[in-house]
UniProtKB/TrEMBL annotation:
Peptidase M43 pregnancy-associated plasma-A domain ranges (all copies): 104-250
Residues in coiled coil: none
Protein name as annotated: M43 family zinc metalloprotease
Annotated organism of origin: Chitinophaga pollutisoli
Similarity comment text for this entry: Belongs to the peptidase M43B family.
Length: 258
């Protein structure tokens, strides 16, 4: 088992009326996130029996920052009035700079920056992979309709799992089907204990599902956080994914740990 670590978080809400995402909604999102990253989520029991022993516990907890970069007291939430909607170009960089209608990052070596805004083109979220992008751009962006489990969140993405998924990417996880969706079965997520999978799944599948990359039971692992199913239908990271995230955290993002 890993040592439990804590990562300080700042949430930047960038909207025409940023008060629509309340402090309570942010706290609800953080609570859900912590359950998922401590493998304490109630729906873990819905992982199929054959894969129960593969469930991983990242032992990462997240807390809202108590101090600003200048050392002033804060609740770890900033609000910026902006009429902009944001494309996911370059991991959503425009929301990360005041000069383009966004909010500047707090030192990304010390804080995990999360931006909540209106993303264009039906994207729910986007993340920076380790080693790509400038320090000022590190962090994740989540659509305000897919953030948290109350307030502005809308079904079927109102159980906080967009942030769980995006933080998987932030800690170096690929999608469970790999990087492409062309069913070649050669492209993998570089994690041993997740079955090969041809392409993404949507909505809320059930039962054993197979495809041409994994043609036999127990089939593909569509209920993994790194697939595209609805929030209520994704339930876990595997041990292999957890190992990969912890390695990325310790080697690439170690300065975030407290
Ligand atoms: N990367 C995906 C997107 O931008 C996020 C998928 C999140 N899935 C979810 N059930 N919340 O669309
Ligand atoms: Zn993704
Ligand atoms: Ca795999």
């Amino acid at each position: 088992a890993f040592n439990r670590v804590t990562i300080p978080v700042v949430v930047h809400i960038v909207l025409p009326d940023p008060s629509v995402v309340t402090d309570e909604q942010v706290l609800g999102q953080l609570a859900t996130l912590n359950l998922d990253f401590l493998a304490q989520n109630a729906d873990l029991s819905q992982v199929p029996q054959v894969w129960q022993n593969l469930s991983g516990n990242p032992e990462i907890q997240f807390c809202l920052a108590a101090r600003t970069p200048d050392g002033e007291p804060t609740n770890g939430i900033t609000r910026t009035v902006s009429d902009r909607t944001f494309p996911i170009t370059r991991a959503g960089f425009e929301v990360k700079f005041a000069t383009s209608g966004g909010a500047n990052a707090w030192d990304s070596d010390k804080y995990l920056n999360i931006w909540v805004c209106e993303l264009r083109d039906n994207y729910l979220g986007v993340a920076t992979f380790p080693q790509l992008y400038e320090p000022e751009e590190q962090g994740v962006v989540v659509h305000y309709r897919a953030f948290g489990n109350s307030g502005s969140a809308r079904p079927p993405f109102n159980q906080g799992r967009t942030l769980t998924h995006e933080l998987g990417h932030f800690f170096y996880l690929y999608h469970i089907w790999g990087n492409t969706d062309n069913n070649t079965c050669t492209d993998d997520d570089n994690v041993e204990d997740t079955p090969l999978q041809g392409t993404q799944n949507y909505d809320c599948p059930s039962g054993v599902l197979t495809d041409n990359c994994t043609p036999a039971a127990p089939g593909i692992m569509y209920m993994n956080y790194m697939d595209y199913v609805n929030d209520g239908c994704m339930h876990f990271f595997t041990a292999g994914q957890t190992e990969r995230m912890r390695t990325a955290l310790e080697t690439q993002r170690g300065s975030l740990m407290q």
